[in-house]
Write a structure and sequence with these properties.
The chain is mainly alpha-helical. Helix content is 76%, strand content 0%. It has two domains: 1-72; 73-139. It contains five helices and no strands. The mean pLDDT is 75.
Length: 139
Amino acid sequence: MSPILPRHHEALVDRQGMRLAARLNEGSAQLPHSIAERLRAGREQALARRKVASPQTVRGLSLALASGPEEGMGWFGRMGSLMALCLLVIGLLGIHEIQNELRARELAEVDLALLLDDLPPAAFADPGFMQFLKSADSE
């Protein structure tokens, strides 16, 4: 999608807003003064909110890195993005290693329980014994 499209869209929205404002202004001359003042205050509030919200406009996924593709990212922005990506990858690798270690410990505990148990390991391979264990757990 080219950067011209959003600008064109913004221009169309602005033109439509101007047309709407002109139509509203035509009818506002016939309104009582108190209603006209409330409308004026509402317009000022809307414009204030629009000015505050415009820098936070999301364009793609680059809200935290830049405000838009037309401004580009400098060297510092690219290094920051690269650093964030590296930290993310390191974090994911760390989580993977921790999960592998926890799984290995769980398996070691099961193996230790099998070796220290009074039953021979062949008993656990018997399908009837596994059924017995399931029924004993449910009771």
